[in-house]
Amino acid sequence: MYFIILATDKPNATQIRQQARPAHLDYIAGFGTQIVAAGATLSDDGTAMTGSFILVDMPNRGAVEEYLRNDPYVKAGLFERVEIRRWRKVIFHPPAE
To answer: With 27 labelled, which of 44, 65, 73, 74 sits at a CA distance of 20 to 30 A?
Structure first.
């Protein structure tokens, strides 16, 4: 099942993001193809990271919640708000490899 994780950084959390980023990237790499797409959301002018978008393929919401509990960004207190939404694929064009 696909789920979207949409997280919003706390105000003035750039330092938290930078410090936790290497551990976060190592963590998500361990999930292989379960992480379908991931990246930072940006300010309108593209100069600042404002949160995270992650599209995951996991068996259920509980698995997504477990993933989040152990994410270094979550553990570091980066996010002001985190939403988990189930997603139904209608159109999906994965990048060519």
So the answer is: 44
